[in-house]
Design goal:
By secondary structure, the protein is mainly beta. 11% of the residues lie in helices and 52% in strands.
Length: 182
C-alpha cells in the first residue's frame, strides 16, 4: 500500500495540483499524501490500481476528489516506474495552490494524466473535460477540454472558451487576460 501511495503522489498531487514547469523541490509536508476511498484494488495482470467510491486525495498543495481514480503502472520490466497515466472520473473536483500562491478550483467530469518518454523526449499532459471550469481569485474560465502540457508549460483552452476577469474595488481592470497564466 505504501508503494501505491507513493505512486499516487507522483501522479495526482505534485503534478495535477502544482502544475508548474519548474516546481520547487518538495518539502516534507508536500510529500505527505492522504488517500481515502470506499474501496480499492490492484490488478496485477494489467498493472492497474483502482480506487472507487468517494475518492479523496490530499497533500499540502491541495485536494482532489472524484468517484473513481485509475492509475496505470508501466510494465514491470521497464526501469522507469513512473505511472503511464491516471484517470479521475465522475465529479472531479480539485482545489489547488498555483505557483503564485493563489487558490484555484477546477471542476470537470473527467481528468486524464498522460506520461511517456519516447526517443528520450518526455511528454506529460493533463486533460480536463469534456467540460471544465477553473476559478481563481482574479478570473475564471471554461473550455472543452482544458489541456495543460506540464513539460512545455502550454495551456490549451479547447473550444467554447469563456473567460471572465474579476475586478477588485477601485482597481480598474486586472490586466490583460494574456498575463493570467504567467
Amino acid at each position: 500500500m505504501k508503494k501505491t501511495l507513493c505512486l499516487l503522489s507522483i501522479v495526482s498531487l505534485p503534478a495535477v495540483l502544482g502544475a508548474q514547469t519548474n516546481p520547487a523541490p518538495p518539502t516534507a509536508a508536500q510529500q505527505e499524501i492522504g488517500l481515502h476511498a470506499g474501496r480499492g484494488y490492484y490488478r496485477g495482470s494489467t498493472r492497474q490500481v483502482v480506487y472507487c467510491d468517494h475518492v479523496v486525495v490530499t497533500n499540502a498543495q491541495g485536494r482532489l476528489s472524484c468517484e473513481r481514480l485509475t492509475i496505470n503502472l508501466p510494465p514491470s520490466e521497464v526501469a522507469d516506474s513512473h505511472p503511464t497515466n491516471a484517470v479521475a472520473e465522475t465529479n472531479l473536483d480539485i482545489i489547488y495552490i498555483d505557483k503564485h500562491g493563489e487558490t484555484n478550483h477546477l471542476v470537470a467530469d473527467k481528468g486524464v494524466y498522460a506520461y511517456s518518454v519516447i526517443d528520450g523526449v518526455t511528454n506529460e499532459t493533463f486533460t480536463f473535460g469534456p467540460h471544465a471550469t477553473n476559478t481563481a481569485a482574479k478570473f475564471w474560465f471554461t473550455g472543452e477540454p482544458l489541456v495543460w502540457d506540464n513539460i512545455k508549460g502550454d495551456f490549451n483552452f479547447g473550444t467554447n472558451v469563456d473567460l471572465k476577469l474579476k475586478q477588485s474595488a477601485g482597481s480598474g481592470t486586472n490586466g490583460s487576460p494574456f498575463n493570467l497564466m504567467k
